[in-house]
């Protein structure tokens, strides 16, 4: 099973709530919008991974202590656990987003998140994450690898969870 992260930096611009998304330029989910993120490297905690991936993909510096755990997403493919994704959010970061070979960053109003250009399951959990809730979800895909070409089948979602045992 793959372990991965997503990070959603937030800001308020003259009363408009925005979230930093990326347009993914290569790999899994290419061409779709997402948060910065990626797979854990050996020995890394999810929090460290989210900090590293956000730095590598869009150039923002985040103190790991400023990340708030918002979700755990269990992606299953053809009945097998495929990816466990740890989702974080933060309002505290340094620097300005800049593009990289992996990602084109874009500040987007929370009210205008382009769910029609994202993974199909995102509309089920990301609104809650952007509303400050905590969620745990299981999302089942069928149709074989790669995950981003499989069909989204069904899901289960729990809100108001706590992540007390976080690494
Ligand atoms: N929003 C969202 N993100 C997802 C879903 N499924 C899924 O794997 N992801 C995320 C988890 C990871 O952050 C990212 C995939 O990891 P990645 O970006 O390292 O993948 P990649 O194939 O490009 O890897 P690499 O070549 O850069 O190592 O996609 C989903 O259904 N929705």
Strand content: 35-45%
The tally of domains stands at 1
The H-and-E topology, N to C, reads as EEEEHEEEHEE
Distance between the termini: 17 Å
Poorly predicted residue ranges: none
Write the CATH architecture name: Alpha-Beta Complex
In one word, what is the shape?
globular
Helical residues, percent: 10-25%
CATH class: Alpha Beta
Kindly state the number of beta strands: 9
Say what the CATH topology is: Nucleoside Triphosphate Pyrophosphohydrolase
**What ligands can be seen in this structure?**
8-OXO-2'-deoxyguanosine-5'-triphosphate
Biggest pleated sheet: 9 strands, mixed
* Name given to the CATH homologous superfamily: Nucleoside Triphosphate Pyrophosphohydrolase
Question: Which value, in Å, is the CA radius of gyration?
Answer: 15 Å
Mean pLDDT over the residues:
97
Q: What is the overall number of helices?
A: 2
**SS-based class:** mainly beta
Pfam family, one: NUDIX
Protein name: Oxidized purine nucleoside triphosphate hydrolase
Cofactor: Mg(2+)
InterPro entries: 8ODP (IPR003563), Nudix_hydrolase (IPR020476), NUDIX_hydrolase-like_dom_sf (IPR015797), NUDIX_hydrolase_CS (IPR020084), NUDIX_hydrolase_dom (IPR000086)
């Amino acid at each position: 099973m793959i372990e991965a992260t997503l990070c959603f930096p937030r800001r308020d611009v003259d009363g408009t709530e925005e979230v930093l998304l990326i347009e993914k330029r290569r790999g899994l989910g290419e061409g779709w919008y997402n948060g910065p993120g990626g797979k854990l490297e050996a020995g890394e905690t999810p929090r460290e991974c989210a900090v590293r991936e956000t730095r590598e993909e869009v150039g923002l510096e985040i103190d790991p202590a400023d990340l708030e755990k918002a979700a755990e997403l269990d992606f299953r493919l053809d009945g097998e656990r495929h990816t466990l994704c740890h989702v974080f959010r933060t309002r505290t970061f340094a620097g300005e987003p800049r593009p990289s070979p992996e990602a084109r960053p874009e500040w987007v109003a929370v009210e205008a998140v382009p769910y029609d250009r994202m993974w199909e399951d995102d509309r089920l959990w990301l609104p809650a994450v952007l509303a400050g809730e905590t969620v745990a979800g299981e999302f089942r895909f069928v149709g074989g690898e790669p995950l981003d070409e499989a069909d989204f089948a069904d899901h289960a979602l729990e809100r108001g969870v706590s992540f007390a045992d976080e690494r």
